[in-house]
Backbone:
């Protein structure tokens, strides 16, 4: 029988794969010269100063975040006693970061980037799955 920990890990794994795909798309766009050629809303965000943290593109940091999270989920899935302490902290950080960058995207830059929305959606799904795990 599947227990709530395995169900939560499965939901987190699927949402993190979804977020990783979006982060990889933005990271590849940022890495290639395509970002300078076309003037889409995602490329405008990738070129803005808000898209960097200490001269490192946020898209690269998002890829690292999702890869680390996926590795942790795979390691936890093989353990008998599952504790989600670090994953709780990471997802809380991801949700806070999501709200921060969503506010910047909507109100400061006034641009809607569907690649960013995809990452925001993945982070919110992870937050909802952690909340539902703790309150079930």
Residues:
């Amino acid at each position: 029988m599947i227990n709530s920990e395995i169900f939560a890990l499965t939901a987190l794994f699927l949402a993190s794969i979804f977020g990783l795909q979006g982060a990889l798309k933005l990271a590849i766009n940022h890495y290639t010269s395509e970002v300078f050629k076309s003037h889409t809303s995602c490329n405008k965000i990738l070129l803005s100063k808000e898209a960097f943290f200490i001269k490192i593109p946020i898209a690269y940091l998002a890829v690292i975040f999702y890869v680390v999270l996926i590795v942790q989920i795979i390691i936890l899935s093989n353990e008998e006693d599952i504790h989600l302490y670090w994953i709780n902290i990471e997802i809380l950080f991801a949700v806070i970061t999501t709200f921060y960058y969503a506010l910047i995207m909507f109100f400061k830059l006034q641009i809607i980037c569907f690649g960013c929305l995809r990452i925001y959606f993945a982070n919110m799904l992870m937050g909802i799955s952690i909340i539902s795990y703790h309150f079930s």
